[in-house]
Design a protein that fits this description.
Layout lengths: L2 H28 L2 H8 L3 H7 L3 H20 L9 H16 L2 H16 L1 H14 L2 H11 L8 H16 L1 H6 L6 H19 L3
Helix pairs in contact: 1-2, 1-4, 1-6, 2-3, 4-5, 4-7, 5-9, 5-11, 6-7, 8-9, 9-11
Length: about 200
C-alpha cells in the first residue's frame, strides 16, 4: 500500500470517528458536515470526497457497527453438536453487543433519525439487514440437516432476536434502563433458547 493511500485511509477513519462523536452528542438532524469536518481536522471537500452525503456517512457507521456485531456471530453449523450448545454463544454475543454503550447511543440516534424520515429509516434498516445473515445461515443449515422444522430462516432468526431485544435493547433505548447484568444476560439467553428450540427443533 502506498503512502498516499494510507493517508486517505487515515482521513476516512478520522471522519468516521468525528461523525460518531457528533452524532452521539447532537443527534442526526443537528449534526452538519461542516462540524464533522472541523472535528476531524479535514476540509469539508475531503469529507464529501469520502461520503457524498450525511446519510451515506451515517449508513457507513451503522454498517461498520453491524459488521463488528455479525463477525462475532459467524458460527458455522455443525451436525455433530447439540443445537443448544451451538446457538448459545451466538445469542450470548448478540446480547453482549446490544448492551454496548456505543451501540445503544448510535441506535438512539438512528431511531430518532428514522422518526423524522421513514424513507431514510427503510434504507438504513435494509443496509443493516444485509449484514444480519450469520444466524439466518446457521438456521438454514440446521433445517437442511433435518434438525430444525421448515420455516422462513430469516423470520425464525428475527423471532429469536426479538426475544433478546425485548429485555436487552428496547427497555434501555426507550426508557433508559441500565444494561443487563451478566447473570440476567444468561437468563435471557437460556429463556430465548428454550422458546426457540421448543418451537423449531425436530423432536
Amino acid at each position: 500500500m502506498t503512502a498516499p493511500q494510507r493517508l486517505t485511509d487515515r482521513k476516512r477513519e478520522a471522519i468516521i470517528q468525528a461523525a460518531i462523536a457528533e452524532f452521539r452528542a447532537n443527534g442526526f438532524e443537528i449534526t452538519s458536515m461542516d462540524k464533522i469536518a472541523a472535528t476531524a481536522g479535514v476540509s469539508k471537500r475531503t469529507v464529501y470526497n469520502h461520503f457524498p452525503s450525511k446519510e451515506e456517512l451515517f449508513a457507513e457507521i451503522l454498517n461498520q457497527l453491524w459488521a463488528r456485531v455479525t463477525a462475532e456471530q459467524e458460527t458455522p453449523y455443525r451436525s455433530d453438536l447439540p443445537l443448544r450448545e451451538q446457538l448459545r454463544p451466538i445469542l450470548a454475543a448478540k446480547v453482549q453487543m446490544l448492551g454496548d454503550d456505543n451501540f445503544l447511543d448510535l441506535a438512539r440516534v438512528a431511531i430518532a433519525a428514522a422518526i423524522h424520515s421513514p424513507e431514510r429509516a427503510q434504507n438504513m434498516v435494509a443496509r443493516m439487514g444485509e449484514h444480519e445473515e450469520g444466524l439466518t445461515v446457521w438456521i438454514r443449515a440446521a433445517q437442511a440437516d433435518g434438525r430444525l422444522k421448515a420455516a422462513a430462516p430469516d423470520f425464525a432468526a428475527q423471532q429469536v432476536q426479538g426475544l433478546l431485544k425485548s429485555f436487552a435493547f428496547w427497555p434501555q433505548i426507550s426508557m433508559g434502563f441500565p444494561g443487563l447484568s451478566a447473570e440476567m444476560q444468561g437468563t435471557v439467553v437460556e429463556s430465548a433458547l428454550d422458546m426457540f428450540l421448543a418451537c423449531y427443533q425436530v423432536q
